[in-house]
Inverse folding.
């Protein structure tokens, strides 16, 4: 066990965990940030997507010891009031069904639009292909990303 | 760590009782008859009143709170149920709050999710509940103004005096309304006056979901709670021989290792620590029953299809004579593999077994049954158990089973501590409860004029029960018909998977009828319409589907897809009746470099009145995506009793890029609403396979399509 101080959502948060503990479980079990979801544990489904220095990463497969001073943003820190343009678009399009994968979907979409505010259809397809939605809300996710992009 | 999930019934009751006045109307979700309703004043809210099944409350500051009893797993019941109440109440939807109710068999009936049955069950009851409260509010205003109730109208959470225009909010009237006698009879709105029903209303949990609030079972934490993972036998038909937990117990964060039944539970302080400890656990297994592989099943299926010992499900006319006299006989076989339900939130449940009672918290589809099974397991009365429902991160039928609830309860009773049992994705894929593998043989006898004079269906399945739907189409339309089935009892456990049985039966049937239509030299849609016409004129035996409703979705799909008129694409048709609703689909396939690609799917659905247009559109689209994904890719195979696909690296689910355009239309017939959680899924595979045939001349008999020889090198999810 070691003490790790992480930069998460603009705050310094400390957790005493084993060095190999994935960021996902540090967030969920130790810091009470449960918006980031566990889906597969092997970086195949994208439910655990967070931002590390602005890049979308799968937090289930990144050990806490690899985070260092990197800036982590989770769904809880994407905006203060849930009004990030991507979140607004998600609400406007009424995307979620069960909703479990949606935090990961939103984080992938937000990372895409931060880097590429006007993505093509193909670019959206490629950026989102790592996030599974078992309910099949893919059409609405696409629509919401297009909507958020149009407001950029 | 603190308890992050705080919304529960007790919190709400406290809120209600501390409000300064207000109307709380107990309404029986199971029976919203006036005689069994009464007004409850906030000061004397009888928590255990057996006559009342739910609470609709109006606070003095005009907030309307509605409990939603049924488990929410993405079918959107938490939004559509309250919409129905609010419609009749003439409530301002902006001021309606919805709260998930805990399990309460005294207050609620049919508090479950399954079979797309919630809306048809509760439609009338919810309407009456809203209408009753509205009438009491109107009468309270009439009393205050000393006018006739008939001169008043309710609108947008106001009661308005039509002549003078003066008005009062529901909140202002709530306390007075609570002393009005509950009306014996209430008038429901004319359906043409619906303002909220039939519109697109956003999911009531949207903000919580898109901001990552704790909503799901896996998000539930409790101070002092322990975490547990369970090592189950790696192969069906095996049991524990020996356990060596020395190394696991020595791992940091591990509190205990407990063996019960065929389970070895690692109990500890965090998810990752127990996950690591599990990897050093040494368990030996030995054979307990049959050890089966997918290759065995293939053999068993062939034997059963030719067996003389089938259970007859339906017999009309003289099938043997019809087939003997036939000008042409067509016989085809179709097979599907096992499937994992794979809801995105893996199984989990919290249990705290104490001396004085048991607390259960988590996601399940049948909370009442889960509680009763827990009571039986622990040898206590069900009343000693509370069960709080979290939002379900998907279900697809997996959470109809209580196995993971019972594990948590049993483990908590053994370790005498609050514990949350967590399944990994691998546990979920290997742990049992699958869509059963099934094989069908369909046979049709055509006379010289291309009329189907005989029809036979045999279904054989692995723990599939009756894998036929003997009173569904085309039964009733064929003079001579025989439907029978045989079940193989396998150690591999199965369960209801979204649209049980019909998720593949519809495919096989609709692919077969397409082939028969071609043999009969008829247009596939006209062929089905002719059969329906035949069933209407002179039905053979009893049928469960409505002929006119099935025809109407067929006609609508035909019209919207411009059936047969677009020369650039190849169209395939399919129609199916399930769970009281009707859905027809047309799939369009384009050819690129000699390879087929699915471009678009049209759907025409009849679920009667659409409650929430937004939820309904997505329910159909999602059902189609689900049906397509599993028809194309879903494949769970076994080797020596063990699952070969353990996670999403080799168990393929449909992804973003692979989804075609989907266009949805609803039949607008004003009939009382039926469910939509399942009926859009069954027709999809057939529509796609039939379009692939049009495009390539190749028939697909087995799922998943991407494993069929005919589809090697083809990516059906590719777009033009």
């Amino acid at each position: 066990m070691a003490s790790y101080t992480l930069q998460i959502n603009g705050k310094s948060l400390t957790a005493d965990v084993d060095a190999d503990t994935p960021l996902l479980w540090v967030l969920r079990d130790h810091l009470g940030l449960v918006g980031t979801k566990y889906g597969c544990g092997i970086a195949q489904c994208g439910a655990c997507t967070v931002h590390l220095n602005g890049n979308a990463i799968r937090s289930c497969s990144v050990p806490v010891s690899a985070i260092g001073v990197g800036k982590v943003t989770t769904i809880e820190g994407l905006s203060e009031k849930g009004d990030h343009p991507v979140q607004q678009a998600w609400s406007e399009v009424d995307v979620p069904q069960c909703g479990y994968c949606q935090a990961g979907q939103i984080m992938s979409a937000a990372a895409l639009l931060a880097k590429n505010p006007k993505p093509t259809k193909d670019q959206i397809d490629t950026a989102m292909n790592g996030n599974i939605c078992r309910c099949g809300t893919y059409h609405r996710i696409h629509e919401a990303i297009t909507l958020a992009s149009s407001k950029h | 760590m603190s308890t992050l999930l705080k919304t529960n019934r007790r919190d709400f009751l406290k809120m209600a009782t501390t409000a300064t006045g207000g109307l709380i109307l107990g309404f029986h979700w199971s029976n919203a008859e006036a005689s069994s309703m009464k007004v409850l004043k906030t000061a004397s809210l009888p928590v255990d009143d057996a006559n009342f099944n739910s609470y609709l409350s109006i606070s003095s500051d005009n907030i309307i709170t509605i409990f939603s009893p049924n488990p929410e797993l993405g079918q959107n019941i938490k939004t559509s149920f309250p919409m129905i109440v609010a419609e009749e109440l003439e409530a301002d939807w902006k001021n309606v709050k919805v709260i998930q109710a805990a399990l309460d068999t005294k207050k609620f009936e049919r508090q479950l999710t399954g079979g797309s049955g919630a809306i048809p069950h509760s439609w009338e009851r919810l309407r009456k509940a809203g209408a009753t409260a509205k009438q009491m509010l109107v009468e309270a205003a009439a009393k205050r103004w000393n006018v006739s109730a008939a001169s008043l109208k309710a609108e947008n959470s106001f009661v308005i005096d039509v002549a003078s225009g003066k008005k009062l909010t529901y909140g202002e009237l709530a306390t007075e309304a609570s002393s009005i006698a509950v009306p014996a009879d209430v008038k429901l709105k004319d359906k043409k006056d619906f303002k909220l029903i039939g519109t697109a209303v956003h999911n009531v949990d949207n903000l919580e979901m898109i901001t990552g609030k704790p909503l799901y079972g896996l998000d539930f934490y409790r101070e002092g709670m322990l975490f547990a993972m369970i090592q189950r036998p790696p192969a069906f038909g095996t049991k524990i021989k020996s356990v060596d937990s020395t190394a696991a117990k020595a791992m940091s964060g591990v509190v205990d290792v407990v063996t019960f039944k065929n389970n070895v539970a690692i109990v500890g302080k965090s998810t990752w620590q127990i996950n690591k400890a599990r990897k050093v656990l040494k368990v030996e297994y030995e054979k307990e029953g049959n050890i089966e592989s997918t290759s065995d099943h293939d053999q068993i299926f062939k034997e059963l299809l030719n067996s003389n010992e089938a259970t007859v499900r339906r017999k009309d006319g003289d099938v043997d004579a019809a087939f003997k006299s036939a000008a042409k006989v067509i016989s085809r076989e179709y097979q599907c593999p096992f499937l994992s339900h794979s809801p995105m939130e893996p199984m989990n449940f919290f249990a705290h077994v104490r001396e004085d009672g048991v607390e259960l918290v988590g996601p399940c589809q049948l909370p009442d049954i889960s509680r009763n099974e827990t009571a039986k397991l622990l040898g206590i009365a069900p009343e000693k158990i509370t069960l709080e429902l979290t939002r379900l991160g998907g279900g697809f039928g997996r959470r109809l089973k209580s196995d993971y609830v019972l594990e948590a309860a049993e483990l908590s009773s053994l370790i005498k501590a609050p514990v949350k049992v967590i399944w990994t994705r691998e546990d979920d894929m290997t742990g049992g409860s699958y869509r059963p593998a099934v094989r069908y043989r369909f046979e049709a006898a055509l006379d010289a004029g291309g009329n189907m004079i005989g029809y036979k269906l045999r279904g054989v399945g692995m723990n599939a029960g009756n894998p036929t739907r003997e009173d569904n189409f085309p039964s009733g339309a064929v003079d001579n018909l025989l439907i029978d089935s045989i079940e193989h009892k396998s150690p591999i456990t199965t369960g209801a998977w979204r649209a049980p049985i019909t998720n593949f039966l519809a495919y096989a049937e609709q692919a077969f009828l397409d082939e028969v239509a071609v043999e009969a030299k008829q247009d596939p849609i006209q062929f089905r319409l002719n059969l329906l016409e035949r069933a209407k004129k002179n039905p053979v035996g009893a049928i469960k589907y409505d002929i006119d409703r099935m025809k109407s979705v067929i006609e609508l799909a035909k019209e919207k897809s411009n059936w047969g008129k677009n020369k650039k694409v190849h169209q395939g048709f399919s129609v199916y009746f399930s769970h009281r609703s009707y859905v027809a689909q047309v799939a369009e396939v384009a050819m690129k470099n000699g390879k087929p690609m699915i471009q678009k799917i049209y759907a025409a659905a009849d679920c009667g009145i659409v409650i929430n247009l937004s939820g309904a559109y997505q329910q159909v689209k999602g059902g189609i995506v689900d049906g397509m994904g599993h028809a194309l890719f879903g494949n769970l195979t076994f080797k020596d009793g063990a699952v070969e696909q353990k996670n999403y690296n080799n168990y393929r689910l449909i992804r973003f890029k692979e989804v075609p355009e989907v266009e949805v239309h609803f039949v607008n017939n004003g009939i009382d609403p039926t469910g939509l959680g399942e009926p859009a899924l069954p027709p999809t595979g057939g529509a796609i396979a039939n379009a692939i045939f049009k495009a390539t001349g190749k028939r697909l008999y087995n799922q998943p399509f991407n494993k069929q020889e005919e589809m090697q090198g083809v990516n059906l999810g590719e777009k033009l």
